[in-house]
Amino acid sequence: MRACQEGETSRFIQYGLYPLLLVLMLGYAALELHQPAGKFGGYYGIYLSALVALMLLVETLHPLRAEWGMTKASFFRRDLPYMAIGGLTLGLVNYAAGWAILHFGMARGGPLAEFPLLPAVVLALLIPDFIWYWVHRLSHEARGPMGGWLWKMHLAHHLPQQVYLLMHAVAHPLNVIIVRAILTVPLFLLGFSVEAMFLANLVVGLQGFVSHFNVDIRAGWANYLLMGTELHRYHHSADPVEAKNYGAVVTLWDQLFGTYYHRPGVVARRLGVERPELYPTDREVLKVLALPLAFRWQARE
């Protein structure tokens, strides 16, 4: 009886948890869209806290690989410092953006300001993801001075040999700034509505958490639309053959440009970088942060 219940729980997690998370996101989005203009987005903190708490609970109780899970050492010596640095970086970037808008009079409005909401959200997902796809791909595949610098900036996110929910925050602050710029500046300049940008941000946020989830989620046909757990885990593989899937939200660009990689039901054998001996360890945070900050440009090893 107990084995049967455990099997049913495992099947629900594999095939039902991801749709449930999508339904919860859509329900929250509908709630916000019905709020008065002055209160729009007011429940975001509650939604985000509930989402993270639920996913942490599932990940703790039903990890895909125990050795890929969060430990006290990994959290306090690596994840927490990056969260603090990333949070400070985002705060400064958001302040600078607000100052620029106020002082340089960057006007709202544009060709997509009055676009219907659903098509606008789709475009607000596809356009930044296209830009990120190429920046991300160049960070992994480009050679020469520029490729070397991009890789050193992106390396912090790939040094960990685990992939779990909170590890999503492990990133160099320069990488954080570039990602934030890609996600917001094009949409702002094109004049997307606040509602379209907010809903697109919800999808990006959910996919960011889901893609770093140490849980056996099977998305089935949705793997050909969205960059979820199964696909992004391959991106963190230490095997360069598997470490593809450069899109953040959708799989469209990987499929069009030949970098889509998926073997249903098969998990990467080892995560991290191919040759970890070339770099500082993932917990040597200051050394990792210093890698792209040298005044001279270096080619990739």
Topology record:
Blueprint: H1 2-15, H2 17-33, H3 44-61, H4 72-104, H5 117-141, H6 144-154, H7 173-190, H8 194-211, H9 229-235, H10 252-256, H11 285-290
Helix pairs in contact: 2-8, 4-7, 5-6, 5-7, 5-8
Describe the structure.
This protein is mostly helical and about 300 residues long. It has one domain. About 55% of the residues lie in helices and about 0% in strands. It is built from eleven helices and no strands. It is globular, with a radius of gyration of 20 Å. It starts with a helix and ends in an 11-residue tail after the last helix. The C terminus is likely disordered.
Would you report the number of β strands? Answer: 0
Series of H and E elements: HHHHHHHHHHH
Q: What's the number of helices?
A: 11
Query: Segments where pLDDT lies below 50 for 5+ residues?
Result: 295-301
Structural class: mainly alpha
Using only C-alpha atoms, the radius of gyration works out to 20 Å
| N-to-C CA distance | 55 Å
Mean pLDDT across residues? 88
Helical fraction: 55-70%
- Shape assignment: globular
Q: Percent of residues in beta strands?
A: under 5%
Query: How many domain regions?
Result: 1
- How many strands, what sense, and barrel or not for the largest sheet? none
